[in-house]
């Protein structure tokens, strides 16, 4: 890697006043032809391009991004990473992603700041606790780490949480995935972009795909704001805009695009060193390395592409967090933002071929796709390279909406994360 980052390169560049660093990725003009075009320069699209080049030797690849790299949901999410899903298919897919996270900084030679501080899902009712036990047992059977905790064990780990029975929804226990955690979202996009560019992938920003060129049931290329670009294989990884792209091919995806918001507080001293989530009061919180509380909840119920949300959702979410952490009522909030998430009927992704030969979709990750970024790119690259799904994403094809083999992860997806 020409641009390899190390202590040695830091010292060397430091001696030159840091004026000789190479750009992390190249920004070439688009060529007329590629073997594969990836539409969408978020984490999933960039990871797909990286693994196409690295694992399948397909390097004549372009990633077309209408804005700036990682400016979609990749930049807007709250970065929770875990693999404790209920059903075998989902648990295996997300666990594949988690295993890749565990070696990602080394693989990319880029610090994605993956921090395995654990993810806790608290339960407030007897039914919550039954669901927690069931999911933890299913996780253990699938080789996914899971622990069930008592209220006192929760309090020992998170001293600020209120486990008294004075609250409206007292905390009765929790599941905990020790290998879960958080990562730095921008670094994931930049790391994959740098790795893919190094392997020969063209990363083209400010290039919106405005149409798909299809002849005789085969994809031939794309119309873009920078002219037509041809390729026999096109992978669409456009999150909230997936239905818009599908429509260009005359396809209708079973997706709804909803706003999803998050907000952060002022910076504080370390006060919570894990991720706490509650489906029942409907909120979750972690603390960033800068000291901000990172807080999120559920989608706004209306459909839209506005990348902003409604104030009442913020109010509801703040109330949920204060219910669990009364002392946070005195913390001032700093920033709020929204992304557009592509929600599927079974809260599981679509990683699939389509009836148009050479046209593939990777979407439907809804509120929880960040955690899957490396795994999603890895199996999607396989699907495109072989024109056949990877064993881990075979169950996530579009056919499931016709056959009825849905993988209902509403319980494990629950509060949006
Ligand atoms: C507020 C919020 C909190 C979240 N929290 C979590 C969490 O804690 N954990 C978790 O696992 N997930 C979370 N998610 C979900 C997660 O962010 C997404 O599932 C994931 O980032 C999707 O990645 P992506 O690369 O597919 O999409 P994106 O990053 O959105 O990338 C898609 C890209 O496609 C581009 N694009 C769209 N149309 C076109 C076009 N016509 N031509 C060219 N480019 C196009 C867009 O500009 C965009 O950059 C959250 C999402 C939000 C909004």
TrEMBL record:
Residues 36-80 form the Rhodanese domain. The keyword Protein biosynthesis does not apply. NCBIfam families: soxB. It comes from Aquitalea magnusonii. This is Sarcosine oxidase subunit beta. PANTHER family: FAD-DEPENDENT OXIDOREDUCTASE DOMAIN-CONTAINING PROTEIN 1, SARCOSINE DEHYDROGENASE-RELATED. GO terms for biological process: tetrahydrofolate metabolic process. Its main location: cytoplasm.
């Amino acid at each position: 890697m020409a641009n390899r980052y190390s202590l040695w390169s830091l010292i060397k560049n430091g001696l030159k006043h840091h004026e000789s660093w190479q750009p992390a990725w190249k920004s070439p003009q688009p060529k007329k032809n590629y073997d594969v075009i990836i539409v969408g320069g978020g984490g999933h699209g960039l990871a797909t391009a990286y693994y196409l080049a690295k694992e399948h030797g397909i390097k004549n690849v372009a990633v077309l991004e209408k804005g700036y790299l990682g400016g979609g949901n990749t930049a807007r999410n709250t970065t929770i990473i875990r693999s404790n899903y209920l059903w075998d298919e989902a648990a295996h897919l997300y666990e594949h992603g988690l295993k890749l996270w565990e070696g990602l900084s080394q693989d990319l030679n880029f610090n994605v700041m993956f921090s395995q501080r654990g993810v806790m899902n608290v339960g407030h009712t007897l039914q919550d606790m039954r669901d927690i036990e069931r999911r933890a047992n299913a996780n253990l059977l699938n080789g996914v780490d899971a622990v069930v905790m008592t209220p006192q064990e929760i309090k020992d780990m998170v001293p600020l949480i209120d486990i008294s029975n004075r609250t409206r929804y007292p905390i009765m226990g929790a599941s905990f995935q020790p290998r879960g955690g958080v990562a730095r979202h921008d670094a994931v996009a930049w790391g994959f972009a740098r790795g893919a560019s190094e392997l020969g992938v063209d990363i083209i920003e400010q290039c919106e795909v405005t149409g798909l060129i299809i002849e005789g049931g085969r994809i031939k290329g794309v119309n873009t704001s920078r002219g037509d670009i041809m390729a026999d294989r096109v992978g669409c990884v456009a999150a909230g805009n997936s239905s818009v792209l599908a429509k260009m091919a005359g396809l209708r995806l079973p997706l709804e695009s909803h706003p999803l918001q998050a907000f952060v507080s002022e910076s504080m001293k370390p006060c919570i060193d894990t991720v706490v989530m509650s489906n029942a009061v409907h909120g979750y919180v972690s603390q960033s390395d800068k000291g901000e509380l990172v807080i999120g909840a559920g989608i706004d119920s209306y459909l839209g592409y506005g990348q902003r949300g409604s104030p009442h959702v913020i109010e509801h979410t703040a109330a949920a967090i204060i219910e669990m952490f009364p002392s946070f009522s005195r913390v001032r909030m700093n920033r709020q933002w929204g992304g557009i998430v592509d929600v599927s009927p079974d809260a599981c992704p679509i990683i699939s071929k389509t009836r148009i030969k050479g046209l593939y979709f990777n979407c439907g990750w809804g509120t929880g796709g960040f955690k899957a970024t490396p795994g999603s790119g890895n199996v999607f690259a396989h699907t495109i390279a072989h024109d056949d799904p990877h064993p881990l994403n075979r169950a996530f094809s579009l056919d499931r909406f016709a056959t009825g083999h849905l993988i209902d992860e509403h319980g494990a997806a629950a509060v949006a994360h």
